Amino acid sequence: AALREGYEHFDPRAYLRNNYLPPRADFSSEEFVVPWKLRCLAETFASGEIRGRTLIDVGSGPTIYQLLSACDHFEEIVATDYLAVNREELGRWARGEPGAFDWSPFIQHVCKIEGRGEPWQDKERRLRQRLRRILPIDVHRPEPLGAPLRPPADALLSAFCLEAVSPDRAAFVRALAHVGNLLRPGGHALLLGALGESFYLAGPARLPVVPLQESDPAAGCALRELRSYAMPPALRTGVDDVDGVFFAHAQK
C-alpha cells in the first residue's frame, strides 16, 4: 500500500531527466553507465541465441533504450508497466508524437556499437513497428498480466523494476517467480538492476528500493552470465544511493 501511494507521485519526466540525460547518459566513454548497459544488451543479443516470436519487457517504465538491440530478433515486443503515466509516455514515443522524449542519441550509439552501418532511423522505425502492445502489469500477482500470456514469451527483459517495486527481499523473490510465469521453458531472461540501492527520486516521489547483491537476481532460473558495474563518484548525483548496476542473463 505504501509503495502504491508513493508511485502515485511518480514523475516520468523527472525520472528520465535524472537517469537518461547527462551526466549519466554520456556517450563519450564506455566508462559511463548508460553505454555500459547498452553494450551488455548489444553483445548478448549479437550471439543470435536469444530470438523468437515474442519478447516481453516487464516494468518498462517510460524508457525504450533496453529494447533497441532486442528489436532485431523478435517479431513482437510487448512493453508493460503498472503506471498509466509511464504507458502514456511510451505510447507518445511509439506514435512519434511531438514532445516525446528524444531517444535518438541512444539509438545512434546502439547502431554504432552493433557495427552494421545501419542508419539509426531504420532501427527506430523497426522498434516502433514491433512494439505492438503496451500493457498494464502487476508483478505482485501470480498472473502479472491478469491472465496467462499465450503463447508464453520466448524471452523476458526487465530493467530496474522488481527491486524498485518490492517492499522487501521476499517480495522481490516472489515477483521474480511471478514474471517467470510469462516465459516459456527454455526461454531467456535478461535483467538489469541496481546494486545496493535503498531509494531513488522521480520528481516529488522518493521511492524505496530493495538493496540487492550480485547473488540475488537469478532465482528460479539457471544463471548464464552476470556482469556488474560500480557507479563512479561523478555519477552519484543524489537522485539515488545506488552502488552499482548488474546485468544478468538466465535461462528458464
From TrEMBL:
S-adenosyl-L-methionine binds at residues 15, 20, 59-60, 65, 81, 86, 138-139. GO terms for cellular component: cytosol. Belongs to the class I-like SAM-binding methyltransferase superfamily. NNMT/PNMT/TEMT family. This is PNMT methyltransferase. It comes from the Eukaryota. GO terms for molecular function: phenylethanolamine N-methyltransferase activity. Keywords: Methyltransferase, S-adenosyl-L-methionine, Transferase. One of its GO terms (biological process) is methylation. NCBIfam families: GntF_guanitoxin.
